[in-house]
TrEMBL record:
<dbReference type="GO" id="GO:0016740">
    <property type="term" value="F:transferase activity"/>
</dbReference>
<dbReference type="Pfam" id="PF01636">
    <property type="entry name" value="APH"/>
</dbReference>
<dbReference type="InterPro" id="IPR050249">
    <property type="entry name" value="Pseudomonas-type_ThrB"/>
</dbReference>
<dbReference type="InterPro" id="IPR011009">
    <property type="entry name" value="Kinase-like_dom_sf"/>
</dbReference>
<dbReference type="InterPro" id="IPR002575">
    <property type="entry name" value="Aminoglycoside_PTrfase"/>
</dbReference>
<protein>
    <submittedName>
        <fullName>Phosphotransferase</fullName>
    </submittedName>
</protein>
<feature type="domain" description="Aminoglycoside phosphotransferase">
    <location>
        <begin position="22"/>
        <end position="252"/>
    </location>
</feature>
<keyword id="KW-0808">Transferase</keyword>
Amino acid sequence: MELNLASEVLKTYGFTKENTIITQIGTGLINRTYLLSPLAEQKKYILQQINTTVFKSPWAIAWNLKAISDYLSQHFPDYLFIKPIPTIEGEEMAQLNEEFWRLLPFVPDTVSLDVLTDSRQAFEAAKQFGKLSRLLNNFDASTLKPTIPGFHDLAWRYEQFIKALSGSSESIKAQAEAQIEDALNHKHILDYYISYTHRSDFPDRVMHHDTKISNVLLEEETFDGICVIDLDTIMPGKFISDLGDMMRTYLCAFSENEKELNRIKIRIPYFEAMIKGYLSEMKAILTETEKELILFSGRYMIYMQALRFLTDFLNGNPYYPISYPIQNLDRAKNQFKLLNEIAVNEKELQDIIEENLMY
Ligand code: GN1
Ligand code: MG
């Protein structure tokens, strides 16, 4: 972080550059995150710059977090909700010129993982995300603001893809020919989704919208789930967003960046643990329609992410940072392979779901 800016931001929170150690942490693609260790305190903090290209109205994030945190502290005072620490002037965020920063408490004795190495981690993480939605079941989701309009709207993502397709050059399209075909061939996922959206028992709920494993803090020795973090995309959505993104990111031992496609396989025990963890919180409140869509949630999120990577590639990579030119195309390939793995294992996965819905 630029030195001048650093001291301005720190001052807003009552720290100085001289008495605070700052180190960059985190692996997210969107926000920049720093660990702040004031020399005079045991406590540490997380300082994060909000990416305003992605989050065009940062105050919407602050609004949502305040509304949810007020509700939770009134109804579930023991729940650990990581809300921003106000500036010394009492603001929810620090605004410096066009930049937005916020300070969060660092939760000691916890770890955040980048990959799951044990199915129990899938159980613990899924339980944490399920718990957040369960505690907010009676909270009026419509009072929240969309922090990214259309974020998990598959119809909009598909439209963006079609638009990118018509705007890209023949040579780019030739490079992505197979993935474009995959995207078009899987449009039935969108049609299926649309056929459900008007059902009255497919409610908007409060969703986290970014349920990857690094967004759950686990106790560092026992690996018990402690809390969820990265709350910028908490907003109204369908339950398929959270469960689906867990399927997308927990089931394979390799991430969306893996290029060796025969490594993209589904770990069935992780699926089972994830379903058990999520249902341990959500089974009692999911509607019949939602229960029907459990496995579909994975298809929905994996397809959407494949479309997003492919669209970004066709557009010249304005959104997802890349370390080589065709990385977003490779990521799309990876996601289409994962989508195919869901289809290959469908029967077994659906049996697991049904078994766990029964008891
Ligand atoms: C982005 O920055 P990160 O890694 O938390 C993206 C998610 C994608 C993910 C894919 C705001 O999340 O929706 O699933 O990349 N977040 C936003 O890696 O676009
Ligand atoms: Mg995120």
